[in-house]
Amino acid sequence: MKLLTLVAITAFFIFAGCSEDNSTNPQPQNSTLTLNISGLADLGASAKYEGWIISPGGKAKSTGVFTVDASGKLSKTKFDVDAKSLSDATKFVLTIEPNPDSDPNPSPTHILAGDFNNKTSTLSIGNGAALGDDFTSSSGKYILATPTNGANTDENSGIWFLDLTSGSPAPGLNLPTLPNGWKYEGWAVINGTPVSTGTFTDVNVIDDADPFSSTMGGPPFPGEDFLVNPPSGLSFPTNLAGGTAVISVEPDPDNSSKPFLLKPLVGMIPSNASDHVTYSMNINSGSFPTGTATR
Question: Cys-Cys crosslink for 281: which of 88, 267, 277, 295, Cβ 3.0 to 4.6 Å?
Answer without folding.
Answer: 267
